[in-house]
Design brief:
single chain; mainly alpha; 3% strand; globular
């Protein structure tokens, strides 16, 4: 890993988002109101996608995660998760800035620089050990801060439960993460691979809870929808729910 290359590109590329930041400042307004119910006009189609996702989990993700979790050493699994999380931080910093959260942007920038420099490219999370916790964010949250409503509920193939606002946020996050603009293809590939392993590791770590939702509840679709919307709304409002764990968002979030 060329750490100096990553650091220099991070500094240069963040500067390219000046126009985006200004546009965000001009567009920012009161955060969107938190709904109490749900808008699921395409429930029939969503249930079909859910059935496919459930089948893929049962046949592929669950057995693969079990094999990975029981065979791969814990430290190696943790290192891959750390590496994936570290590469996502520049995009988190951009969203922090778009939300006027300057203190959080500074903390996440320092986390990225510290872990990349002294944590062997992010394999070790030395920032957390130093008491610098990550303040996670995404463009879906930025839209919420700007006053964009939640929109319709939707279940995405492979990715699981989401909303219209969150779907839009996923696409924008891919575009605004400075590291996605780095010319070295190897770095992007490494990030994608490590992200995949991290998601498999999450499926293993939270396997019992996911199994309860998908295979033990009377209506797994309704249960997954409830958990996703409830946890996401609490997260956006600054509160916590279920220890900030969403059995779909944490596992199928492949950004």
């Amino acid at each position: 890993m060329k750490i100096a290359f990553i650091l220099s590109n991070f500094s240069n590329l963040v500067g390219r988002f000046g126009a985006v930041l200004v546009a965000g400042m001009l567009a920012a307004c009161t955060p969107a109101p938190t709904p109490t119910g749900f808008d699921d006009p395409n429930e029939a189609q969503n249930r079909e996608v859910h059935a496919v996702n459930r089948s893929l989990d049962r046949r592929v993700l669950r057995p693969v995660s079990a094999a990975y979790g029981t065979s791969a050493p814990g430290p190696a699994r943790k290192a891959l998760s750390n590496f994936s999380e570290n590469l996502s931080l520049p995009g988190v910093v951009v969203n922090n800035l778009l939300q006027f959260r300057i203190e959080e942007a500074g903390a996440n920038t320092f986390r990225f620089l510290l872990n990349t420099t002294f944590g062997f490219g992010g394999l070790m999370d030395v920032a957390t050990e130093a008491g610098i916790a990550e303040d996670s964010s995404d463009f879906g949250e930025t839209l919420y801060v700007w006053g964009v409503g939640e929109g319709k509920y939707v279940e995405l193939p492979l990715l699981g439960p989401s909303t219209s606002r969150a779907v839009a946020g996923r696409f924008v996050d891919l575009a605004i993460n400075p590291l996605n603009l780095v010319s070295e293809t190897g770095l992007r590939v490494a990030g994608g691979v490590s992200g995949g392993f991290a998601r498999v590791d999450d499926r293993f770590t939270f396997g019992d809870l996911v199994d309860q939702v998908l295979y033990e509840s009377a209506d797994s679709y309704a249960q997954a929808r409830l958990l996703y919307l409830q946890n996401r709304r609490f997260q956006l409002s600054g509160e916590t729910q279920l220890d900030d764990f969403d059995p779909y968002e944490d596992i199928y979030d492949l950004q």
